[in-house]
């Protein structure tokens, strides 16, 4: 089954053809998976924190099975270039949240930053 059929099974053949055309023209701008993220070197990004005191929270203690999942996801994101190693005065704990299909979603608990 092609992407247009998966994405919009209820659409008409004409709509699917139009979607297929868009995908062919703009395919490089569309993610093919969770780790397929674009990036640019055209712009440097910096978050100005002003005089805010850094929030550095320790990692949460996790059961061994969850720790292994977190470690695997971190390795995958490092390998894909989604994240990079860093050391600094700011850190927030990782939280695993189960998706509807049961697979893990890697989240970071930034609530203390917003307090």
UniProtKB/TrEMBL annotation:
It comes from the Eukaryota. PANTHER family: REVERSE TRANSCRIPTASE DOMAIN-CONTAINING PROTEIN, TRANSPOSON TY3-I GAG-POL POLYPROTEIN. This is Transposon Ty3-G Gag-Pol polyprotein. It comes from Trichinella patagoniensis. The lineage of its organism: Eukaryota, Metazoa, Ecdysozoa, Nematoda, Enoplea.
